[in-house]
Amino acid sequence: MALEAYASRNPDTVHSDVLSKARQACYKARDAFYACLDKESNKRPTEIASVGLLYPSECKNSRAEFDKHCRASWVKHFDRQYCRNRRVQRLLDDKDSRRGPLLLPQPYTFKSS
């Protein structure tokens, strides 16, 4: 029902932000922002983006371009995807250092007096 109502409101409208040139501009802005995040990863994050993504103030301009060129739902999706990939990569990189002890507790031996 909701899909039919949406389709009947604007049957001949083409959203320009989903066309090829707009998508390419969005992807370019996205890549520039995440490249800035990777480049400035050693600096303290002071700004907050969607889904709790933190970034340094040096990336504020590229974030504004990213928000300007992409739909809000796409920005949220890309932020979640970036956070998920970073989390997985961190777990894969730190696999050995985060592993706990593999020794089983030894049984107590009682000495008879």
Write a structural description:
One of its GO terms (cellular component) is mitochondrion. Keywords: Disulfide bond, Mitochondrion. It holds the Pfam family COX6B. InterPro entries: COA6_pln, COX6B-like, CX6/COA6-like_sf. With 113 residues, the chain is mostly helical. It contains four helices and two strands; from the N terminus they run H-H-E-E-H-H. The protein has helices at residues 2-9, 20-39, 60-69, 72-93, and strands spanning 47-48, 54-55. Strands 1-2 form a two-stranded antiparallel ribbon. A hairpin with a 5-residue loop joins strand 1 and strand 2. Helix 2 (20-39) packs antiparallel against helix 3 (60-69). The model has no long low-confidence stretch (mean pLDDT 79).
How confident overall, as mean pLDDT?
79
Total number of helices: 4
Distance between the termini: 84 Å
Radius of gyration: 24 Å
User: From the helix content, strand content and strand pairing, which structural class follows?
Assistant: mainly alpha
Note the beta-strand portion.
Answer: under 5%
Subcellular location: Mitochondrion
Protein name: Cytochrome c oxidase assembly factor 6
GO cellular component, one term: mitochondrion
Pfam family, one: COX6B
Topology diagram in text:
Blueprint: H1 2-9, H2 20-39, E1 47-48, E2 54-55, H3 60-69, H4 72-93
Antiparallel strand pairs: 1-2
Helix pairs in contact: 2-3
What's a concise summary of this model?
The protein is mainly α and 113 residues long. The chain has four helices and two strands; from the N terminus they run ααββαα.
